[in-house]
Write a structure and sequence with these properties.
Layout lengths: L12 H8 L5
């Protein structure tokens, strides 16, 4: 079983935007 750690990538604005828009987070 894969465990995904949902860490907010606050160090990268583009990654943060992508994370916020990711419906599977």
């Amino acid at each position: 079983v894969e465990v995904r750690l949902h860490v907010v990538p606050t160090h990268n604005k583009d990654a943060l935007i992508g994370w916020l828009n990711d419906p599977d987070k």
